[in-house]
Amino acid sequence: MKSGDRDHPVMDKNELVEKAKLRVVSSIEQKTEGAERKQQVAREYREKIQTQLRDICNDVLSLLEKFLIPSASQAESKVFYLKMKGDYYRYLAEVVAGDDKKGIVDQSQQAYQEAFEISKKEMQPTHPIRLGLALYSSVFYYEILNSPGKLSLAKTAFDEAIAELDILSEESYKDNTLIIQLLTDNLTLWTSYSQGDKAEAGEGGEN
C-alpha cells in the first residue's frame, strides 16, 4: 500500500454519495419547516438514506474486522485498515442515536488509538497514512467527541511532518502537502470556532 489518503476509493465513493444526500435532505427539512407534507417526504427520504449508509458501513466494517485487519502483516497495512475502521465507525456515529451510539463511538476511538500507537512506532511523521490518520482522527475528536483539546494530536502531526518535508521525494512531497494543507485548514477553522465560543461565553458572563 503506497499512499495514504488515496483511501479506499470504491468504498468511500458510495459512502460519500450517501452522506452528501443526507446533508441535502437535512437542509430541505429545515427549509420546509411549516410545510408538513414536504417535511414528511424529506424525513422519510432521510431515514432511507441513513439505512443505506448504515448498511454500507456495516458491510465495510465486517470486511475489515473479519479479513483485512487480521491478515495485515505489515505496520503500514495495519494502520491503514485500523484508520479505515475508525473512519467507518465515525460515519456510523453520525447517523445513529440513543444507546447504540456510545458503543459505536468507543469502537471508533479504539481503532484510531490503536492505529496511532502503531504509526508512532513504525512510521515516519511524513508518511501519508500517518498524516491521514492524524487528519481523520482529529475530525472524530472535534465533531463526534466535541473534544477540541485533542486537536493537539493534529497540531503535533503537522509540526513533525513540516520539520521533515525537505527530505522527501517529489511524489511523496505532493502526497503530503495535500494532507498537510487539509490539516492546516481544519486547525485554523476549529481554532477560530473555539475562540469565538470563548468570546461569546465571556460576553455572556458580563451580562
TrEMBL record:
Family indicated by similarity: Belongs to the 14-3-3 family.
Record's protein name: 14-3-3 domain-containing protein
InterPro entries in the record: 14-3-3, 14-3-3_dom_sf, 14-3-3_domain
SUPFAM superfamilies reported in the protein's UniProt record: 14-3-3 protein
Domain 14-3-3: 6-204
Signal peptide as annotated in the record: none
Coiled-coil ranges (or none): none
Pfam family, one: 14-3-3
